[in-house]
């Protein structure tokens, strides 16, 4: 389990590197472009390849690919390289086909995603032009996803999870160039494409260093076909989860100008702890659980899931409380520069609070979905994702009438909670050891409550938000120490 902790630290460090630069990127975009109809256009154009990215690069395919790759690496690395090479070729063909369709029919595609701007041809034209630029990123990032999966299998986490830092650096530069040379958001689209190319070069070189070799023979590995059969139901699940965000932004296009941008900025802040901690836990868990199943070590499988659940509770509970009660201060500190106004800050913070309510639910959805995928059950998560999708639409229609774009964020959080409960209660071979860990969980919640009381005291005293965050973190970990709980003890 010490090995698990080591990999978890490397994984979190890799995501943290990328997320920090991603935050700098979003600050630059907000400062130079603010929240306008053209940022709405860019964010939706960029969302289209990223919707498919979740299927082919980070979600369905990775979840089906990693267990198979793990089995092959244990038996014969040469066959594993042959399988990976064939999978890259087939996936490239699929993603190139999707990319071509969206480029050819870009005008119609953007109308599906921002129908609220139907009567604004200037916005539609800008979104269509940017979609043509960013769509090839899908092909690039899909290959990156497979190479990342290979590196996860061999126990390398920092490089693949930090690889999007290269993309973020490119987009930061493009935001500055766009801001100083006319303010066109098209610079961001070019930054995304160039950054994707550099990201692929970065991760490919490291994969070759770590042993990957292109192994192409005439006959395609039979497991490639099986992999795609496995991902068919999983694509539905991951696609539905992504549609929860996408549907919200589509509906937001009918609201006031900038609503899509407010949801984007809020979701980026909300996804910072989700990406750094929850996704890192889930990524390590998938490969480690898959490896344990390959060795038929079921006892270790249950321990790994327990440790991941505890880790999520330990980090996400205090993070959620802090982010909820400091939402205005955080948004002001991060985004309120140049043309991003206090009105934009307030609108972004209101959405952030609603997203934060579901932060722990999203964390558990990520974890439990990967638990199913580690045993090659890709169908069950789809059923629950579809139920949560329907619930999301229903709640949006209820909340949007009196909460606006913030209602979209709240609906997303509630639907994530429904999904998490369904996933957990349906894992027949696993139940969290409440009796074993109840004292630890109680101490974590008590420490979080003490931290919150201290945080609210400092907030009411008018202390700067960075000082509040720093001191509150110290109080939380000091409380854990006094209760004789530590991260190393929990994850050891």
TrEMBL record:
The record's Gene Ontology biological-process terms are: cell wall organization; lipid translocation; peptidoglycan biosynthetic process; regulation of cell shape
- Assigned GO CC terms: plasma membrane
State where the protein is found.
Cell inner membrane; Cell membrane
Give the bilayer topology.
Answer: Multi-pass membrane protein
**Known pathway:** Cell wall biogenesis; peptidoglycan biosynthesis
Domain of life per record: Bacteria
Q: Name one GO molecular function term.
A: lipid-linked peptidoglycan transporter activity
- TM stretches of this protein: 44-66, 87-114, 134-153, 165-181, 187-209, 230-252, 272-289, 309-335, 355-372, 384-402, 408-427, 439-457, 463-483
The record's PANTHER family line, in alphabetical order, gives: LIPID II FLIPPASE MURJ (PTHR47019)
Question: What's this protein's family per the entry?
Answer: Belongs to the MurJ/MviN family.
Q: What does this protein do?
A: Involved in peptidoglycan biosynthesis. Transports lipid-linked peptidoglycan precursors from the inner to the outer leaflet of the cytoplasmic membrane.
Name of the protein this chain belongs to:
Probable lipid II flippase MurJ
Give the organism's phylogenetic lineage. Answer: Bacteria, Pseudomonadati, Deferribacterota, Deferribacteres, Deferribacterales
């Amino acid at each position: 389990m010490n090995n698990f902790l080591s990999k978890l630290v490397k994984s979190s460090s890799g995501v943290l590197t990328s997320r920090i630069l991603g935050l700098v990127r979003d600050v630059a975009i907000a400062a130079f472009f603010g929240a306008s109809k053209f940022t709405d256009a860019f964010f939706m154009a960029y969302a289209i390849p990223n919707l498919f990215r979740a299927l082919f690069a980070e979600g369905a395919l990775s979840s089906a690919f990693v267990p198979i790759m793990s089995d092959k690496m244990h038996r014969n690395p040469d066959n594993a390289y042959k399988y990976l090479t064939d999978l890259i070729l087939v996936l490239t063909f699929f993603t190139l086909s999707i990319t071509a369709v969206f480029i050819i029919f870009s005008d119609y595609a953007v109308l599906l995603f921002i129908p609220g701007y139907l009567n604004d041809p200037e916005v539609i034209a800008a979104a269509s032009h940017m979609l043509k630029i960013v769509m090839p990123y899908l092909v690039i990032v899909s290959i990156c996803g497979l190479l990342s999966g290979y590196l996860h299998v061999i126990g390398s986490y920092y490089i693949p999870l930090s690889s999007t830092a290269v993309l973020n650096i490119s987009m930061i530069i493009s935001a500055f160039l766009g801001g100083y040379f006319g303010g066109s958001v098209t610079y961001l689209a070019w930054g995304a494409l160039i950054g994707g190319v550099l990201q692929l070069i970065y991760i490919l070189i490291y994969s070759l260093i770590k042993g990957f070799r292109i192994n192409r023979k005439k006959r395609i590995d039979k497991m490639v076909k099986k992999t795609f059969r496995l991902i068919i139901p999983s694509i539905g699940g991951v696609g539905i989860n992504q549609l929860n965000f996408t549907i919200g932004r589509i509906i937001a296009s009918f609201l006031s100008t900038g609503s899509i941008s407010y949801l984007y900025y809020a979701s980026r802040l909300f996804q910072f702890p989700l990406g750094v901690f929850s996704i890192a836990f889930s990524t390590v868990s998938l490969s480690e659980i898959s490896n344990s199943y390959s060795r038929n070590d079921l006892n270790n499988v249950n321990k790994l899931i327990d440790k991941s659940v505890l880790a999520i509770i330990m980090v996400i509970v205090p993070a959620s409380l802090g982010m909820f009660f400091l939402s205005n201060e955080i948004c002001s500190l991060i985004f309120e520069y140049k043309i991003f106004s206090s009105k934009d800050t307030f609108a972004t913070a209101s959405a952030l609070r609603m997203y934060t309510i579901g932060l722990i639910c999203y964390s558990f959805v990520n974890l439990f979905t990967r638990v199913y995928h580690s045993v090659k059950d890709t169908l069950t998560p789809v059923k629950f994702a579809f139920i949560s999708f329907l619930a999301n639409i229903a709640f949006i229609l209820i909340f949007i009438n009196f909460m606006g774009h913030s209602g979209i964020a709240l609906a997303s959080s509630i639907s994530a909670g429904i999904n998490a409960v369904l996933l957990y209660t349906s894992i027949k071979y696993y139940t969290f050891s409440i009796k074993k860990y109840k004292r630890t969980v109680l101490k974590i919640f008590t420490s979080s409550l003490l931290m919150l009381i201290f945080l609210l005291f400092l907030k009411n005293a008018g202390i700067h938000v960075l000082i509040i965050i720093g001191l509150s973190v110290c109080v939380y970990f000091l409380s854990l120490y006094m209760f004789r709980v530590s991260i190393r003890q929990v994850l050891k």
